[in-house]
Amino acid sequence: MASSRASAGGWGIVAGVRALAGLARGVGPAWLTVLASLGLSLIGIHAIDVADALKGGEGVLGVAALKQAASLGVGVAGAVLIALPHYRVLGVASWVLLGVSLVMMVFLLVPGVPTSIVRARNGARSWIDLGPIDLQPSELAKIAYVLALAWYLRYRDNHRTVVGLLPPALITGLPVALIMLQPDLGTASLFIPALFAVLVAAGAKLKHLAVIVLIAAMAAPASYPFLKPHQQQRIKGLLLQIRGDTSADQDINMQSVTAQRLAGAGMAAGLPEERARLLLHYNPLPERHNDMVFAVICNRFGWAGGVLTLGLYGVWIVGALLTSATCREPFGRLVPVGLTGFIVAQVFVNVGMNLGIVPIIGITLPYVSLGGSSLVTVWLMTGLIASVALRRPRLGQRHSFEFDRDD
Amino acid sequence: MFQRRLLLLATAAVGALGVLGFQLGHLTLSRGAEHRRAAEERLIRRHWTPTVRGSILDRKGRVLAQDRPSYDIAVDYRVITGDWAWDRASVAARRRAGGAWFDMTSDQRTEEIAALLPTYRVHLERAWDELARLAGMERAALDKAASEVRREVEGRHAYTVRVRKEKEYATLAERGEARTPEVERAIERRAGQEIAEQRSPHVLVRRVNDEVGFAARFLADEEVDLDLAGASGSEGAWTDRVPRMPGMRVHDAGDRDYPMESLLVEVDRSTLPGPLRGEGRAEVRVDGLAAHVLGTMRDRLFGTTTDPTTGKVTPGDADARRLYLGTDLAAATRAMGADGQDLGAYREGDRVGATGVEASREHALRGLRGVQTRHLDTDARDYVPSVPGRDVSLTIDIMLQARVQAVMTPELGLSVIQPWHATQRVDEHGNLIPGVRPDGSPLYGAAVVLDIDSGEILAMVSTPTFTRQQLRERPETIFGSGAEVLVTTPWINRAVQKAYQPGSIVKSLLLAEAVTHGNYRPEQRIECTGYLFPERPGSHRCWIFKRSRTTHNAQLGHDLDGAEALMVSCNIFFFTIGRRMGPEGIADAFKDFGVGQMFGLGLARAGQEIESEFPGRLGSMGDDPRGADLTIGDAIQMGIGQGPVLWTPLHAANAYATLARHGVWVQPRLMLDAPRVEPRNLGLDERGVRMAMEGLRLSVNSNTGTGHHITMDGRNEPIFNAPGVKVWGKTGTAAAEPIRGDPDGAEGPLARQILEAGDHSWFVVMVGRDRPRYVISVVSDYGGSGGKVSGPITNQIIHALIHEGYL
Questions:
Q1: Within a domain: residue B724?
Q2: Inter-chain residue contact A264 with B31, CB threshold 8 Å
Q3: What is the least distance, in Å, from the CA of B177 to any CA of chain A?
Q4: CB contact under 8 A, A357 and B19
Q5: Number of other CB atoms surrounding residue A129 within 10 Å
Q6: pLDDT value at position B227?
Q7: In-domain check, residue B622
Q8: B8 to chain A: which residues are within 8 Å by CB?
Q9: CATH (domain of B788)
Q10: Residues B2, A307: C-beta atoms closer than 8 Å
């Protein structure tokens, strides 16, 4: 019995390795995305542990890092689960998914919901408290939105006209409006790059998009008075920093300046862990576990660590776009592009605000920042990309979005 | 196409990552070390301990300026307004009510608070009484100080509210938004928010001494229990622990103390001239002693400024200190703390030397702070104790200075226009000279006492001087532009800053120079003809001719040699000498004796000495101070110390000391540690020096000498009466520009007119029991005749030197 169990175990391992090898062949470039996701998550767990500074110290990991590790497990499991069915099943369900997340977001805004379920955090009603799990509907909305948008565009070509751009804009507008009402301007703003990425890939006319970007850029300053005072302050603060004015370093620019100081202090190769913890303790950086975690990485691992992290995002993006490129089926082509749009925008804004070139906006760094909802969401994205890669394209499938004129 | 679009997206994504990578490199690689330092700096906690500024001492070690610990007592604004009582009562009421508080109506709450309020108010009243008692003030005075603070802060708040509202409404109008009552309420609320002054403590009692300061500090930490049970009618014990002196804080306000600023000096009446003479001693109070030399402090730090027109950069305090540390390695090393920071660096609230020695020796006087450093990572602690600033010793003898100033105080009667001065009120045509004041008016001037052997300045007095209290409370009486201040100019140190024509006192110097350069042979005699040019009796006249239509030849019965010419101060003789020396020769002679030269005494901060010492001037009042534009006519006038030449009383004293040293120039010094400049020999002909000294001896010792006696009530009275003291000296009467100004200030109805006119009165002497030891140089502004006005002052200074043991 014992030997048969052992041999069964041995077989199990061999089968597993074979399965993995097969998977690798089947998944192709999506491996890059999966490995990058894993690497980033591990960097994140370490950085979150270091960010505990002198408060942790018991056991191998601090409480926050342990929680993150647990979330990683959930995230990976979620990725596997979402990759199990054919991704077109999700496409079929995409409208329902988007509808569910919209309903949840409306629920967030309903007055009179007990504070034990929905309570404003940092002034935004973004979370549904479900006992052990906190759910952030806007995170799920991101995925549902990409699926729905890709599902909508998959056989179309009318988005090559101005009028045809309106339905995608409408699909984007609903979640964006609801998220802005929470208010969570940061998350809401991520939908726009995702939409553009999908439209570009789907062959929308670049000149239409360029004109829209131009109008938006010109209209942007007009939106300034509508910003909240603290948002205006952060923009003013960034302008002061660019001018080299240090007068606001102790107040409105404190977070940004501290982040830059800590990131810069890492120099080329970073600091020993104990030293990094010490510096983090005595250079208190608000939100260092989540929004400002990139500064912690740079402090701990220096320029090398920062470049490695940015490089892993590069690998993730290459993996996702190659997956899209090797897929022939239109829905599968667009999904990774939309997800890439979210990730790139989120990385740029988050790292940019850590390094002092973007005003401080509450946005997490994907895979790295502390936060269950956020981590599970991005791992679901990883799973989706793997899922697209897993389903080999059927021969004879027409190449989609190949329009004659590339304009 | 799809692949191309993907490539486009990939490029955009990589580009975005590239931007981030670039900024990352900038932060970690280019500026990494800087950020590392800044981050590590947070691991160090520093606690600064105060230091003490060095003292300024006189040559005998008497303290002239020192730091004195002192304290300011401040009180929180909400205590000043009394709101503190309400605040505390609310907290107490709320704590008492517990959860029930939330179920109370607003009226109920107010009632609860109001019940407790009197207890807190009584406590406040008692604390104010105690503070007044502690500070040694009347309660009313304290209340007045508090209400002044309150009025000022309320005024400032009202102003801020107004500005805020204007701004908000302007923005509102700009955006074109409607001005609804709701919006208005919001704006009113925002604009009405407290300003910083309403949350901070305010100083009510200034500059209290150690004893009061310490007592206040202890009281500030004490707490008492207020009994609330009785007030609220509740049962059982209920107390609130409150500070004994709510909101009181004690700040260090170290003060600069000038212990010898005011002194009482006794003057022996028996040595005074004629009508002033009497039995016993006159007690004279002198104020603002040596204020010009010691200088002043300021509370505000200066930043570096650039003159927009000249582009001249004046370094601020921090930069000046950096420059100083850059040139003095030893000082820089001393000042360096463990972490390489300057322990003497200026910080907000530091006091800085503004003028005089306080400014010029700022770097020596300034102490180094102590610093307690704690490294949070290793918990290493170190302590660098504070280092007091160094003391600076002046060459001044403050008691001699006090006696000299006493002599020049109008109350004594010497520095007052007296009948025997015979002050000229009409010119030679019989016209009234405008601006000449009546008898009894005070005279202002300067006196310098110089040690001939060492070049050390023993006394340097300029009257009127000023006191620090006057500077604090009535600065307009020092710097103002009123007619009074235009005449008195208390701010100007007349001994070194004011330009005077030298007059006849230069005759001895020119005699020695003329012999040296062969312009005059000692055996030669020159006739006094009354006026220089036979064809022009109206100009270049001898003073004796001008006064009594006679000549020195007629007086003495023969032509004059150099010594006799000095004795009688013959103008014709020295016009001739001036003519013979010519413009270049006479300019060189004046330059030899220091005209055009600053002494670098150290009366202003580095780089600003030019304002603290007048270097003297030769030639036209143009840009060239060196006299290249002199004519032969100028040379003739300059032979008697008139014409285009200006210098100061210190120049005169130093020139006479040089003559007394037989032509050896020694740099005058005001500080004992000032670097010694190698003495310089002018190479004067010994025969010339001897003749000049003989002339100076005759001038004050011979009956016919101009500096020998004063005629009072028909009697001749010798000017000098100190027994056993030899005097060599020379009088001088120098033409002076009248002072013009508006008698009632620029705003008044009266036009500009002459406020004061006449000649400046000079007397310079060398004194000693065996040989010349000290030079005394005295000038009385618009005093008139040198002998009659400055002579008796000089005589009293000789008595002062005797009194202080110098003679």
A1: yes
A2: yes
A3: 12
A4: yes
A5: 15
A6: 86
A7: no
A8: 200
A9: 3.30.450.330
A10: no
Give the CA distances from residue A188 to residues A176, A192, A348, B162, B792, in Å, rounded to whole numbers and listed in that order: 5, 8, 15, 39, 95
Distance, in Å, from the CA atom of B635 to the CA atom of A145, rounded to the nearest integer, reads 103
Q: Which residues lie closer than 8 Å to A106 by C-beta, 6 or more apart?
A: A178
Q: Which residues fall within 8 angstroms of residue B386, CB to CB, at 6 or more apart?
A: B49, B50, B51, B52, B343, B367, B368, B369, B370
CB neighbourhood size of B535 (10 A): 5
Nearest to A144 by CA among A103, A108, A189, A180: A103
Identify whether B483 is part of a domain.
Answer: yes
Q: Where does residue B193 fall: left (phi above 0), alpha (psi -120 to 50 degrees), or beta otherwise?
A: beta
Which backbone phi and psi does B786 adopt, to 5 degrees?
A: -60, -50
User: Is the same domain home to B82 and B57?
Assistant: no
Give residue B147's domain range. Answer: 73-253
Residue B697 resides in a domain: no
**How many other β-carbons are positioned within 10 Å of the β-carbon of residue B473?**
9
Structural domains in chain B (count): 3
Between A137-153 and A87-109, two packed helices, what is the crossing angle to 10 degrees? Answer: 130
Residue A195, class by beta-carbon neighbours within 10 Å (0-12 exposed, 13-18 middle, 19+ buried)?
buried
Instruction: Tell me the residues of B at the A interface, defined by beta carbons under 8 Å apart.
Output: 1-6, 8-10, 12-14, 16-17, 19-21, 23-25, 27-29, 31-36, 38-40, 42-43, 175, 376-377
Strand order in the sheet with B44-49: B44-49, B370-375, B381-384
Summarised one tens digit per residue, pLDDT across range A185-241 is 888 889 999 999 999 998 888 888 888 888 888 888 887 777 777 777 788 888 888
> Measured between CB atoms, which of A318, A340, A355 is closest to B24?
A355
- Host H or E run for residue A8: helix A2-27
Residue in A246, A268, A269 with CA at minimum distance from that of residue A257: A246
Same domain, B333 and B452: no
Chain segment B266-306, per-residue pLDDT in tens: 999 999 998 899 999 999 999 999 999 999 998 788 888 88
Cα distance between residue B64 and residue B51, in whole Å: 19
pLDDT for A58 equals 59
Residue of chain A nearest B25, judged by CA positions = A303
Q: What distances in angstroms separate CA B315 from CA B301, B329, B606, one per listed residue?
A: 11, 20, 10
Q: To which residue do tokens 């006087």 refer?
A: B365
- Chain B residues touching A203 at Cβ < 8 A: 1-2, 5
For residue B172, list chain A residues with Cβ-Cβ distance below 8 A: none
Q: What DSSP element (H or E) covers A35?
A: helix A30-51
Facing A325 at nearest CB: one of B6, B17, B23: B6
Of B24, B36, B42, the CB nearest to A307: B24
Would you say the C-alpha torsion B245, B247, B251, B255 has a positive or negative sign? negative
User: Taking CB atoms and an 8 Å cut-off, how many pairs form between chains A and B?
Assistant: 138
ipTM of the complex: 0.89
Q: By the 8 A CB rule, do B485 and B436 touch?
A: no
Contact B9 A406 (CB under 8 A): no
* Residues whose CB falls within 8 Å of the CB of residue B33, separated by 6 or more in sequence, listed in order: A267
Closest B-chain CA to A320: B10
pLDDT, one tens digit per residue, over A254-281 is: 888 899 999 999 999 999 988 898 898 8
Angle subtended by helix axes A293-326 and A372-390, to nearest 10: 20
Please, what is the average pLDDT of chain B? Answer: 90
Is B148 in the same domain as B205? yes
A406:B1 CB<8 A: yes
Contact partners, residue B625, CB within 8 Å, separation at least 6: B596, B615, B616, B617, B618, B619
